[in-house]
Amino acid sequence: MSGVRQIWRQVTRLAVAAGLACLGIVYFLATLLTAGLSLLGVGLPLRDCDDDHRRVRAVLTQLDA
What is the mean pLDDT of each run of 10 residues along the chain (65 residues)? Predict the structure, then answer.
């Protein structure tokens, strides 16, 4: 019976490790896809710096007034 438990532990450890590895690969590929689409101009940009500059200018203008 001890041999069966040991085998079961190893099988469950391998299954968990394989599942985590698959999730890591899927996350990595999704990140690459998102970055690639962003570089091609598809969808929303990752960060809109022009909008941030407009907001800062608006706040500074209000502070000067």
Answer: 88 95 95 84 64 80 79
